[in-house]
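Progress report, Aim 2. The chain analyzed during this reporting quarter is listed below.
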Amino acid sequence: MGTVYLARSRGGRTVAVKVARPELASDPHFRARFRAEVDAARSVGGFHTAQVVDADPDAPAPWLATAYIPGPTLSTLLADRGPMDEARLRLLGAALAEALVAIHDCGLIHRDLKPGNIIMADDGPRVLDFGIARALESTRLTSTGAAFGTPGFLAPEQAQGLEVGCAADVFALGAVLVAAAGGHAFGEGTPMALMYRAVHEPADLSALPQSVRPVIAACLSKDPAQRPTPKQLLDLMAPRTAAEPAPHTAAHPPTLHSAAVSPARTPTAGPAATRTPSAEAEGVAHAQTVTATPQQTPRSANVRTGLPTAVATGALIVLGAAGYGIYASMGPGADDDLPRATHELTIPQSIVQGSYGWDVEHRLPPDTSRKGSTHYSANYSVTSTGTEKGVPFRTVYVSGESGRFSDPEHDRDSLMDAMTRTGQEAVTDPPRTIRVPGSDVDFRCETVDGATVCGWGDANTTVAIKFSPSASLEVAAAETRKIRDDIRRPITTASTSP
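Predicted structure tokens for the chain:
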């Protein structure tokens, strides 16, 4: 969403002030949704949320202030202290279920529940950022078939761009509890791999104590209707006695000591938290920033059916929608037994001689599973030039990766499966291998659910492309060859990642 500042209200209360990025501030859809979500969020009570204390959706840079909750995030706590035992898992699950009850009763859906959005305060866990993802969903970047969330905690219906209800938060809660037990519900790897497993593969519950596995398995059901409600989950997870210790973090230092905060007032107008103290003299700002650098919410991946937006609260995931996304891993890798890195993927301003124009690019955080890798997502659509030339497609959607591959065709097929497989897909043209004249690789193409999909895999690049509307496999393969020529380039000293 933007930047988070630690500040004080005029009465001395510590608050977290979240200020929207300029590109969001200029989006009227974001402002309208943000206003509605803030109004609903003000009414959220309960023991396990951070209360909204003030906001100004109409400020030049819309902002939201919540109570400041000292303590580490759940992800930090797990990294420092290791997995939770059964007693603490049950307490955590019950507390998060109470938080979801409070959020859902106010008509909100969190949409991005994950360990990084849970603060482990002295008196128990607090859920942050509820309602923000819905506002971000309304922006231009996600206007078609989009959903917010973080792969690995993302419900199957979110990953497929379907309607999202309260059950999506229950799914995320189940994945959070698996993480709290030291596991990964859907393994590790790229965002696309995590989304694919969430839709098609059973969750890995091996890290959980045997007694809670059936409950968490129900939370992680592929069918939203089969998941328990938060109230039912509270009954199932609540500890059997009230004497067990709460999952507090008394020994953990607060996120930022209050001594490091300069006195300030909660904003009353304008994008207050973006100002320096000198701006106060200009009569523009009503809150000073902290004396240290602002606290930045961790950036997570942003996806275009293939893959994650760099937004403070979660990953943008656009599936089955018009658009073009490149999911590229830059860098040569480190394994001597893999092919030498000679090529990589890039995102030009236009492709196929200007027939498709660039809309938006998102650069993702490095993928630590591949040395030096970087991911991208972008949207392309047909231009007037393309219309004049009579190109066969209105939109092109691509997901891909560059690196060093021992089995590139398998990786290509995995990308195509993740793009097309829903369990109820309608295949019009079954998969066929096509060698286009002048190409040095085979393209695998098929038509699924009204769109034609082609892909290739070579030693350094694996890519899957979805074309809409559908066309013959030969036409799509020919267009794929042109796009491959545009986005695949030799690695030079200047372009190689360190």
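Confidence is low (pLDDT under 50) at residues 138-147, 241-334, 361-374, 494-498. The chain is about 25% helix and 20% strand. These observations will guide the mutagenesis work planned for the next reporting period.
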